[in-house]
Specification:
Layout lengths: L10 H11 L4 E4 L1 H10 L5 E5 L18 E5 L2 H15 L5 E6 L6 H12 L4 E6 L3 H13 L5 E3 L3 H5 L1 H10 L4 E3 L11 E4 L2 H17 L16 E5 H6 L6 H4 L4 E3 L1
Parallel strand pairs: 1-2, 2-3, 4-5, 4-6, 6-7, 7-8, 9-10
Antiparallel strand pairs: 8-9
Helix pairs in contact: 1-2, 3-4
């Protein structure tokens, strides 16, 4: 097992390194690594954790992958919208919402859908793009300076790799922030909603890798989507930013950090 992870990885170089090593399976987290892995090898099985395997073009079918790639697709479009709804419910009376988006992961049509959905609630949602690690801090500062009252951090491998910085910056800016993974609340994030990382990698992806190790071809291992989702809220962080979380939302929460 060879593990490489970090926000500043050179994805093409990493994929080429793995392909040259001729492993039995490559596990790729995020669209960028998955795409460059498919460019580096057409024969080594690849298991990808992607925000949307179909929309990204990595797969044409969940049931019958037609390449050397299978994996887990994260319902990114639907979950980004659900996270926005939960964040709005957490902040009654909110008028300005910032959306932090990685352009390499979330396309303009999906961003427009989020903006329109917020508008139906009388809320102005503004998109702040961050395509690199260095753009994350300035994007948060621009949102704060523009009067944003909260930040919806959209699903992104880039943001996952830099989630510690995002948590710290949003708390420092006194901005309630919604994140992709519920485990983040254990690290100080205010709120996170989605499947658990340990479920994705420890159950779904692990099961697919085992099938490949036992001789199955990627085309014989259907891609999957998570079915279990959790809401986590950190009341210690809420106190830091002087936010009172509505009891109606707390009753829906799977994990509360007090």
């Amino acid at each position: 097992i060879v593990d490489r992870y970090g926000p500043a990885l050179d994805a093409p170089a990493l994929a080429a390194e793995f392909a040259k090593a001729m492993p039995d399976v490559i596990v790729a987290g995020g669209d960028a690594l998955a795409r460059t892995a498919t460019e580096a090898t057409k024969t080594i099985p690849i298991v990808a954790n992607s925000d949307d395997l179909l929309a990204s073009g990595l797969l044409v079918s969940f049931a019958h992958p037609e390449s050397n790639l299978t994996g887990v697709s994260m319902f990114a479009t639907e979950l980004n919208g659900k996270r926005q709804e939960l964040l709005i419910e957490m902040l009654p009376g909110i008028k300005r919402l910032a959306t932090l988006a990685d352009p390499a992961t979330t396309g303009p049509d999906r961003l427009d859908a989020l903006v329109k959905a917020a508008a139906t609630r009388g809320i102005e949602a503004s998109v702040y793009p961050a395509a690199t690690e260095g753009e994350i801090g300035p994007a948060i500062e621009k949102a704060r300076a523009a009067g944003a009252q909260a930040v919806n951090v959209l699903a992104s491998a880039l943001f996952h790799g830099n989630h510690r910085e995002l948590i710290d910056r949003t708390v420092a800016a006194n901005l309630p922030a919604m994140f992709q993974w519920p485990e983040y609340v254990e690290e100080g994030a205010l709120v996170g909603y989605g499947p658990r990382l340990d479920y994705i990698y420890g159950h779904l992806i692990a099961r697919q890798v085992i099938k490949l190790f036992r001789g199955a071809k990627p085309s014989e291992v259907p891609a999957e989507q998570p079915t279990d989702f959790e809401l986590g809220i950190n009341l210690q962080t809420a106190a830091k930013i002087q936010l009172t979380v509505p009891q109606s939302l707390l009753t829906l929460t799977d994990e509360v950090i007090r």
